[in-house]
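Hi Q.,

Before the meeting this afternoon, I wanted you to have the 2-oxoglutaric acid prediction in hand. No need to reply - just skim if you have a minute. The sequence and ligand are here:
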Amino acid sequence: MDSLQSFDDNAPIERVITALLKDGAVILDKLISDDEAEQLKAEIEPAYDAFHGKANSKFYGFKTRRALKLFEYSNKAIEVCSHPRVLEIADNILLPHCDYYQIDKSVGIEIFPGEDRQAIHRDDVQYPIQMQGMNLMFSCLVALDEFTNDNGATLVVKNNRSIHNEPTYDQACSAVMSKGSAVVYLGSTYHGGGSNDSLHSRSALATMYSLGWLRQAENPYLSLAPQTVEKLPLRTQQLLGYRQFGKYLGHYPRDPERRYPGGY
Ligand SMILES: O=C(O)CCC(=O)C(=O)O
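Predicted structure with the ligand bound:
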């Protein structure tokens, strides 16, 4: 079976980006430690309950838990979402097409034994546009357990990103990786959760990043309490979209950055 290229933290970013653009996905080996993965799992746990537990649809699964609002619960999620390696990738993939990029959504996903494989899909279909040479978004899905062929490792299709020619499961490879590693895939890359045929659940923290002029999947202005946002690091606030974009979008009174004094 085909596999994804894997890079450790010392690999030059140019190699990571070249592979990501060519294959549509790469693995970042040991992006976080085992202890950090465990901490994330523990901190995200109450978010599942608050987010009415199990997903309940064919696409999101019937034996899968999902949780949003993670920054209300997890300091480690706040830290991991602005991991320098991931932001380096965002700088290369998204920054050429926008003034700043943003977190589109950050979600906990736990796939339980007996779950079916998910429909293979592209994340960027949430936007009704395609722009040649412009990636609208990418995802970083961190494995909080070891991902194996049996327990629901993310299925990823390399080399077919055609919107007109949807791939079949036999074209996909499994993002088999150690706990703490991450699979990064472009918004145009077909992927989906694998079936969990093992005896244990498989957890992940999946964060999507998108061009700053697009609407975010999770609405952080309503999802997170203002008191929570005020206490977040400035970089995280910015990544959530709490800043002006260019001259015309997202302005608000008392913007601490005030980059466009001639504007509002
Ligand atoms: O959990 C996974 O491995 C992928 C999940 C996914 O692609 C989705 O829910 O859109």
